[in-house]
Amino acid sequence: MALEIHVLDYGDIELETSFLVLGHECGRVRRVPVYGFLILGGTYPVVVDTGYRDNAIMESLGMRGLQFHENMIENQLARHGVKPGDVRYVVHTHLHIDHAGKDDVFPMNTTVVLNRRELECSVSGLMHPQYPKPDIQHLIERLHTQDALRFLDLEITGAEEIIPGVWCEPANAHTEGSANVIVETADGLACICGDVIYNFNDQIVNQVRQTQFMEPQVTGNHAGSKRAEKGAIKKLLNNFRYLLPVHDAPAKIENQQVTGRLQMQVPGPVVSSVPQRNWFPM
Length: 282
Prior knowledge:
Elements: E1 4-16, H1 17-20, E2 29-40, E3 46-48, E4 64-66, H2 73-78, E5 89-91, E6 111-115, H3 116-122, H4 133-143, E7 149-152, H5 154-157, E8 160-163, E9 166-170, E10 179-185, E11 188-194, H6 200-205, H7 226-239, E12 242-245, E13 251-254, E14 257-262, E15 265-266, E16 270-272
Parallel strand pairs: 3-5, 5-6, 6-7, 11-12
Antiparallel strand pairs: 1-2, 1-4, 1-15, 2-3, 8-9, 9-10, 10-11, 12-13, 13-14, 14-16
């Protein structure tokens, strides 16, 4: 069975638009999804990112959480016949507040996989409070529990395999330790790219305030340089057939261009060539 990626809908958040795209529509509030991903068809079920802990915790960033019963990670997994205890690995693109909030739903014999540099960044204070205390404390508990945590050293290794057909590479963008999760599907390579891309339309398709040809716009939330952010986005567009960010619909890529968008599965039917949030059910 070929590997497939199923989108898990963890709810939405409301935040200022300039958080998504640097300097864009400052003061305007936009509602965006928060997704995770379930990889099936391989040796074991693999989950990528676990969403945010609860609605209240988003207030620490001045954001509003919109998470309901159907968005609970147990219910999202159940739609695919999977229980938390069935998942062998939870892999993280990074550890921000809306990516690692439900790790404690999984038993300690589920191994959480993350880049070592990212855990270091989470306790450095550099992007506080985007790394909330209860999420990081849980990871420290895993650090002291046999086989509950696996560190990657992507800055040194370049890539590390999780299961056959799934591996991680350094993202070199967004946070100091962000990782891209690569999945080998029957229709080409798919990359779960975390928050390297927030919004395809404003950053890549109709990139705001850009005059240069094929020049991506950066997000309003990154720890590194603008050059690094732009380069990381260009690398994604050059190397993968599908891109799956956490806050926008997956995209099909051809010749470094977004040529279509997909619904809740990759590979899957392309539903449009124009990015729109409302392709996904609330």
